[in-house]
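User: When convenient, might I ask for sequence and structure tokens for a protein?

AI:
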Amino acid sequence: MRILLVDDEVELTEPLSRVLSREGYTVDIATDGRLGCELARQNQYDLLILDWMLPQKSGLEICQELRSQSDRTPILFLTAKDTLDDRVQGLDAGADDYLMKPFELRELLARVRALLRRYQVTESPVTPCNRLQVADLELDPDNQLAYRGGRMIDLSEKESQLLAYFMRSPGQLLTHHQIHQQLWGDGEQPSSNVLAAQIRLLRRKIEITGETPLIHTVYGKGYRFGE
């Protein structure tokens, strides 16, 4: 994940950059608004952290300019402005979140994680060719993640393998034997109820109340996947 931090307070940007780097993020720094805006336009970032009051161009102006160009990169404002009107103005300009100075690092990191999760789920700007989709369910097998109804679903390795097999064969009857071969091969011999347990766990994750069932039992034979 790549983050752009735009703030003219060196005593803040340096330690904050170190903390974010230790958390695994790649951090670029700009100390004035003009440079920050140029970097935001030229590079692909996963999150922008902007101070409101900046030399040459304010964080508010950067936000407005990027949003006018249909740039949907999440933006977190860091600012000493604390009135309701200020917060409304920032959010109306297109900011996604707002954190008052001074702030606790734990809170900032939590907000960063929340914005990145929200962006991954709702935006998905690039859909890699290895992603699978059936109806309103999408699977990213490389990362063992599924997406449905605006939520991100963590999957175990076996759940991801099982779901990928289903999604590559929508509408087809997959027998118990076929699924066993796909998931465990000839080397492993799981007990007879292991597959049923895997199906039950997967259903709990991808079919919550109100969602259309996608895994259908064909009694005595196997399962069929799809609406």
